[in-house]
């Protein structure tokens, strides 16, 4: 079977897709919003699994509402319908624009700046330097997480809300706007950016691994399997690189994801978190109460969301960039 590619005319140089910052931001935003449309239901499942049994030692015989990914998915769908499975999609879109528009849009410029500072020339044509790719990904992820933090805050609180099986504190926002308004009224700017430090740690770890390993996998596949049609522009190259990337990202990010979810969802009292003052205390209290493995709660759901999301996002963004280079 012939490998599907989108050919970029040789006369297009420099291409808009590769060198226009706005186009790169647009491609990252559009691709990630397309991906999250399909993966948001698994994000809802992951959020509830991570909040279930918060700071409670496992007690034999105590029934839990959610046993595993499949059962949780079925229970939420049965009791809350499609709207329940797509809770938080609105702020999820805004978060994707802020996070992935920033990190995918600025990754290449930041990476080139680092390469130029260290080697004297940009990354084009060079053998990938993993440390510089990791640094560029981490910096862009931290910046994107800071910009999108208020939307992640609302998304997490909306996804945890349930009338049939409540886990964690229930904020009961009626909409994204209602959530942002109530948070602003209660805590102003500080309230909107509560938990941002945990989100920056989460996104920094995830982005450093995701962008760097995707770069590495794509470069390796296109170098070693080009004779089989798996070139740099091949959809199958993007797919395989994304599959490998998703696993390593999930492995690195899940502990930060659990902490971030709990920091965002906790109740606030007099402007302070009722359970955790900062991410480090959240790490400590979670491990002390629930054990080290609690940091990997929802791991399968996380991968089932992150794997397809990574695949869809990178395949979408590569094709959007290729179309941009071809037609603009």
Lateral strand order in the biggest sheet: 1-2
C-alpha termini separation: 30 Å
Mean pLDDT: 85
Helix content class: over 70%
Structure description:
The chain is mostly helical and 328 residues long. The chain is 71% helix and 1% strand. The chain is built from 10 helices and 2 strands; from the N terminus they run ααααααααββαα. The protein has a two-stranded antiparallel sheet. It is globular. The N terminus is likely disordered.
What's the helix and strand layout?
Elements: H1 16-19, H2 21-51, H3 69-85, H4 89-119, H5 130-160, H6 176-192, H7 196-224, H8 235-265, E1 268-269, E2 272-273, H9 279-290, H10 299-327
Which features characterize this protein?
single chain, 328 residues, mainly alpha, two-stranded antiparallel ribbon, 2 strands, 71% helix, globular, disordered N terminus
């Amino acid at each position: 079977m012939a490998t599907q590619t989108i050919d970029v005319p040789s006369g297009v140089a420099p291409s808009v897709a590769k060198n226009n910052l706005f186009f790169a931001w647009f491609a990252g935003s559009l691709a990630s919003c397309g991906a999250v449309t399909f993966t948001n239901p698994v994000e809802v499942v992951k959020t509830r699994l991570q909040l279930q049994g918060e700071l409670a030692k496992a007690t034999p015989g105590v029934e839990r509402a959610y046993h595993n990914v499949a059962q949780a998915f079925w229970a939420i769908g049965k009791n809350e319908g499609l709207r329940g499975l797509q809770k938080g999609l609105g702020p999820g879109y805004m978060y994707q624009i802020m996070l992935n528009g920033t990190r995918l849009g600025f990754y290449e410029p930041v990476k080139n700046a680092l390469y130029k500072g260290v080697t004297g020339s940009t990354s084009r044509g060079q053998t990938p330097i993993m440390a510089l790719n990791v640094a560029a990904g981490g910096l862009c992820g931290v910046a994107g997480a800071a910009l999108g933090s208020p939307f992640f805050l609302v998304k997490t609180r909306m996804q945890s809300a349930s009338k049939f099986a409540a886990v964690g504190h229930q904020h009961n926002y009626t909409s994204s706007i209602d959530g942002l308004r109530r948070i602003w009224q209660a805590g102003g700017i500080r309230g909107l950016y509560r938990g941002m430090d945990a989100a920056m740690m989460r996104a920094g770890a995830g982005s450093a691994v995701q962008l760097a390993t995707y770069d590495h996998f794509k470069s390796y596949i296109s170098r070693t399997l080009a004779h089989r049609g798996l070139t740099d522009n091949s959809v199958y190259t993007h797919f395989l690189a994304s599959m490998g990337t998703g696993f390593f990202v999930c492995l690195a990010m899940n502990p930060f994801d659990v902490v971030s979810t709990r920091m965002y969802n906790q109740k606030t009292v007099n402007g302070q978190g009722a359970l955790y003052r900062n991410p480090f205390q959240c790490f400590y209290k979670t491990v002390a109460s629930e054990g080290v493995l609690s940091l990997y709660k929802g791991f399968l759901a996380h991968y089932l969301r992150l794997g397809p999301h990574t695949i869809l996002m990178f395949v979408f963004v590569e094709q959007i960039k290729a179309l941009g280079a071809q037609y603009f």
